[in-house]
Amino acid sequence: MHVASRFLQPGAVVVRVGKNETATTPILASDQGNALRSLPMVVLVNGGSASASEIVASSLQDNHRASIVGLVTFGKGLVQNIFPLAQGAQGALSVTTARYYTPTGRSIQRIGVTPELLVARTAREAQSAVQGGPAFTEASVFNAPDNERQLRRLEPEAVEGPPEEPGVQDKPLFAKPLPDDTEVAADFQIQRALDVLHASGSGGAGPARAIRIYRRPPPRPRPNQTERSSARRIQISASSQWTSISPPRS
User: E strands along 133-240, which residues?
Assistant: First the structure.
């Protein structure tokens, strides 16, 4: 709330709704002033952006204060209270007491915040995003509550990424706590965020570097039932009267 308040006019940052929907509590931005009100903003997010960072990003997005760039966020839209057991000697119990909604009433539970511009940091990350590669999100947590509006997490058809360069996609995500100028120049997401800022200030700007669009491969056609049946191979053993039917090889 305090972070978002630095960039927003007074108003709702997030809405908290308890199990009884009449217990709705809007959490308001404090009037701290906004020295950056006239400047364009970009927020970078990815699958590791969760909970409080998702609240900030979605609030800025709903209030049209910032452009969101990156990949779909983690998707944690729950309010949880921690109750120590035996004063902490036996661990603690986490109880979900409410849900978070964005200022316009969106729920991010299990689906996350979707950026306006889908951009991956590396070629490998872009390929994984469009091919449905393994990712740890709220939707993959055992017993995580569903999105009550039955919304599904976005499966992007296309993601921007850098051209494949030997060794670049294998670099660690955070090589240093504070990246130097060389690392910033090599970070494709940051460069695309700068493109968005330049476009916001000048009415349009070209890309800072070569862009490659990674797209989801088209689904493989499935044979119909007649083709599937005729494709089965029937093998009869010479030493037995049993007939084995094996499916066609893919």
Answer: 158-161, 212-215, 233-236
